[in-house]
Amino acid sequence: MTEKDMEVHSFHVNGMHCQACVSLIESELGGVQNVSRVKASLRSLSVEVTGEFGDKDPERIASDLSSTLKPHGYSLSLERAGHLAKWSEFKTAFPIAVGFIGLFLILQKLGVVNLITSSGVTYPTAFVIGLVASVSTCMAVVGGLLLSMSASYAKTGDKVVPQTLFHFGRLVSFFVLGGVIGAIGSAFQMGSTATLILGILIGIVMLILGLNLLDTFHWAKRLQPVLPKFVGKTVHSAKTMNHTLTPFVVGAATFFLPCGFTQSMQIFTLTTGSFITGALMMLAFALGTLPVLALLSFGSVAIHKKASSGIFFKSAGLVVIFFAVFNLLNTFAASGLIPPIFNF
């Protein structure tokens, strides 16, 4: 492919929600034949593609590239599609969220589970956050990575061992690296002020995640904190390694993918100041993501493709926002800034 044969086309991306989507889109389109460069932007919900496309017109190029992204819930178009907030979905989503929150508060009051304490996140909380994360669009990058890796191994007829190694690698890395983060936190010996700041940071990150899941306030997508792009690209490049343990390595590397849920849990783990507590906290989170990711790898389940996904995401968003506000109030109460509002 010569320099003069290169064409640059810019398309709007439908279905992009977070920085994880950016990494996935760039990785998938970057692997398309005759495409030499891909640059996606969450801010403008667009992607710029450089390559050699022959005599194809822009509409045909968009259609061909969309076929690569369609399994992950994205599509390309020449014109930006209007954002539909779909407020009517809240009529169903709100009661579902209230029922979910009410159930756990009742179980908490009865002492069946210790979901929320004045000290912050507990293991059951981490597990629940993992459940929500596993079906959110921010986890699409993990699911997309898993599916694309599994597809290459399926050609050899092995559909079980690679997926199993992937999930095992993910659990091991979250346990070990979670412990490392907790141990690092102990070295800093954070005082009350640092703990307060980190508690507020966790609450804000979760609040932004919840707003993004609602898919109602488009401006919230720009507030999501992200890791450098090269981190996601490095993880995605690992899937092309040809080795028996490649799925294990890729699963372990997902600890570094730009998922807001993972980042919020990593920040909290830093405050634990303990290797064991940090390891168990991140393991609980990873176990929460396991059921849906396992169904995705073994049963090709993708909730973001379903017609009712809007209602589900809005329900999940309301639940995440509740826990974000609850965490902020508990943080302020534990610091003595406000009196305890909830007595559990």
Written description of the protein model:
It is a single chain. The protein has 344 residues and is α+β, with helices and mostly antiparallel strands. It folds into two domains: 3-77, 2-Layer Sandwich (Alpha-Beta Plaits), CATH 3.30.70.100; 87-334, no CATH class. Helices cover 59% and strands 8% of the residues. The chain has helices at residues 19-30, 58-69, 90-110, 123-134, 140-154, 161-188, 192-214, 229-237, 246-253, 260-272, 275-299, 309-334; strands at residues 7-14, 35-41, 46-51, 75-77, 116-117, 120-121. The strands form two sheets. Strands 2-3-1-4 form a four-stranded antiparallel beta sheet, covered by helices on one side. It has a two-stranded antiparallel ribbon with strand order 5-6. A hairpin with a 4-residue loop joins strand 2 (35-41) and strand 3. Helix 4 packs parallel to helix 11. The longest helix has 28 residues, at 161-188. The protein is globular. Residues 300-307 have low confidence and may be disordered.
Quick one: how many beta strands? 6
Number of helices: 12
**Largest sheet strand order:** 2-3-1-4
Distance between the termini: 66 Å
Q: Segments where pLDDT lies below 50 for 5+ residues?
A: 300-307
The computed structural class is: alpha+beta
Could you tell me the strand content as a percent range? 5-15%
Query: What is the mean pLDDT?
Result: 75
Assign an overall shape.
globular
Q: Which features would summarize this protein structure in a list?
A:
344 residues, alpha+beta, Alpha-Beta Plaits, four-stranded antiparallel beta sheet, two-stranded antiparallel sheet, globular
